[in-house]
Design goal:
2 copies of one chain form a homodimer. Chain A is mainly α. In chain A, 65% of the residues lie in helices and 4% in strands. Chain A has a two-stranded antiparallel ribbon with strand order 1-2. In chain A, helix 2 crosses helix 7, helix 3 packs across helix 7 and helix 7 packs parallel to helix 11. The model of chain A has no long low-confidence stretch (mean pLDDT 94). At the A-B interface, helix 1, helix 2, helix 3, helix 7 and helix 11 of A face helix 1, helix 2, helix 3, helix 7 and helix 11 of B. Chains A, B: Pfam families: HD_3.
Chain lengths: 205, 205
Amino acid sequence: MPSNRLAQQIAFIVEIDKLKQILRQTLLTNASRQENSAEHSWHIALMAIVLAEYAPAGVNLLHAVKLLLLHDLVEIDAGDTFCYDLSGNQSKAERELAAADRLFGLLPPDQGTELRSLWEEFEAQVTPEAKFAVALDRLQPILNNQQTGGASWKKHGIRADQVLWRMQPVQEGAPELWPLVEQIVADCVAAGYLQQASQAESVST
Amino acid sequence: MPSNRLAQQIAFIVEIDKLKQILRQTLLTNASRQENSAEHSWHIALMAIVLAEYAPAGVNLLHAVKLLLLHDLVEIDAGDTFCYDLSGNQSKAERELAAADRLFGLLPPDQGTELRSLWEEFEAQVTPEAKFAVALDRLQPILNNQQTGGASWKKHGIRADQVLWRMQPVQEGAPELWPLVEQIVADCVAAGYLQQASQAESVST
């Protein structure tokens, strides 16, 4: 019989399969369907490996990859909140804290505490690893939006100034990638995938 | 303008989104649909982190996670070959080599060589990291099969002796997890999720 410790770990591993059912607003690059949070997490973890050379000096890559692999787990209970949904984001913190209690509570206490602290570290965006991880989490959706002709931007009427505001963590967590972000946004505006902010709206932001 | 090097890396990152479209025989734990290879890769990478304490001494966890995150990329061109499909597995190696040429060839040459060698290392199952990674790649589907009442085993008429044969890398790459595998297989046979080998079939295997 496996130990109680291993049984708890396996229960957690089985439970997190549910992240594959959580849909995001981003579409796959072929626009066939919405992306789910598990495959999104895979994508950005592999991005961290491919783009490791642009991480600020001193970033521990394994630590950043851990943050990326588990940063969305709380969505199993709390759902994915669209980043431009202001009212949804007001209740997000409370829903996610309850989710963290339940999900990380499935693990042996020492490991539950450890993984929960990694999730809190990602959310706090203070350590270099968390800043780098958040930068990649922000970058991936604009790559997919570019491939789909701005599908989720158009659906929700998102403007270039909103995207650039949302991308600010790239400037802090992976500054060498910021010119890429500006280039993608400019290309998407030029291609008609993304609305330029109107004069009046620009003044108010 | 981003450098040519970064442009190649971004082209690779965009291309690998296609792994989200590659379907495996395994179902999600709620049996709602087939699992895809991207979310499968996420699941086993996070398993490596949760189950790291069962890795043989000296295993470098970041190295194992890298192997797990990219081990299925060649399926973008070569497709997923069901592990019990003997004829499909005969042509698998050739299809996957051509896929590796194309996909890793999208990257800057130094990085393409590095990531391709990681894929080759996983396939060769010689290093401790590759053995541990392969063990987790084998373990995850039996967890999902147990949750779905043996859905993909029943669909393809897979027997317990075939599963135990398929699970042998667990014995080598993560021996502390082998009793768990035996327990799951025994539980699944007892529950009627998995056929016991018949007397005649047992003799021939």
